[in-house]
Amino acid sequence: MNQISKGTDNSALEYIQVNSEEFFVYDVPEYVETRNEYAVYDGMLKSKKPLLIRGPKGIGKTLSIASWVSQRPKMPFIHYDCSEGTKESNLIGRAIIHRDGTTPFKLGIIPTAIELANKSKVAVLCLEEVGSLPPAMQKLLNPLLDWRCGLFVDALNRSFRLDKDARLIVFATTNPSTNGGVFEINHDLKSRFAIWNWDYPSMQEESKLVNSYGIPDDFVDGLLRLASETRALEKKGNLDYGVSTRDISDALELYRSYDHTSGIDVKKMVLELKILGNYDEEDQINTIKSRIESIFGKEIFGQRTGKSQ
Fold it and tell me: Which sign, positive or negative, has the C-alpha torsion 276, 278, 282, 284?
């Protein structure tokens, strides 16, 4: 049962204490390092410096952090998906109404992370797609990331600060600012982070990241080549979507699901669901179809039934 704590005076609201065990990470999909990520994260743990990872979607930014945390038992991991709709109540907290009529305060992401770090002596906060936060919400993060190491919550008349012997390692991820639908990160927030720029992995690296066991080499090689071509076209502005490592991994899982299914051309089905399905504009669909036919053969879309060989 959740415990309740009071603020610093009798007029303050009570707040619900956090339970560290609810934030331990155990089951995380396998992650293969390509940049010596874990050693870098170990350095962040020692320095206490926040780290912003900037790179395309679907290349394992958040997964790498979760995987690193999972190897360190009893280290709480707080993950929050930032968005344009993020409000102060999400980051700071809000009063909630219980059935018994009481109105305790539910801590937001920032004070929750501080409380967990103080209880466990070390915790990790990951703010996914921090670039999607509105400017006013970005500024709420500033006092957590500098010498203040905390914030004041008006509703509780209480400051939440890291204990001297506690560490809260803050990670953030964001897509490049050239991608649509994101805000520019405020200069004052950006200056508080160490920033690590990631790009798509090479075809050789990517082949090690995905599980291609049991799938024909020609299909895997073709899919990797197709992904590389879509990324190049995205950078040139000819496509609005580059196929990610996550897309490739999903496509291979779909291949296993549809393989040996009567009446299904497995290659055609996978390419339609996980590649063509990412595009809406007719000219882009035609471009992708052309690239698929160039790599897999012009007959790929001509076969209606029958398992591909």
Answer: negative
Closest CA to 153 of 100, 215, 88, 59: 88
Residues 6+ apart with CB under 8 A from 102: 14
Nearest to 53 by CA among 188, 174, 189: 174
Torsion angles phi and psi, residue 128, rounded to 5: -80, 135
102-149 pLDDT, tens digit per residue, is 889 999 999 999 999 999 999 999 999 999 999 999 999 999 999 999
Do residues 293 and 301 make contact, with C-beta atoms less than 8 angstroms apart? yes
The tokens of 46 are what?
A: 């020692």
- The two structure tokens encoding residue 284: 């882009």
pLDDT digits (tens, 9 = 90+) for 97-115: 887 778 899 999 999 999 9
- Report the C-alpha dihedral over residues 34, 37, 40, 46, rounded to 10 degrees: -160
- The reply to whether the predicted model has a pTM over 0.90 is no
Residue type, 184: E
Please tell me the total number of residues recorded for the chain in this structure.
Answer: 309
What phi and psi, each to the nearest 5 degrees, are found at residue 245? -60, -40
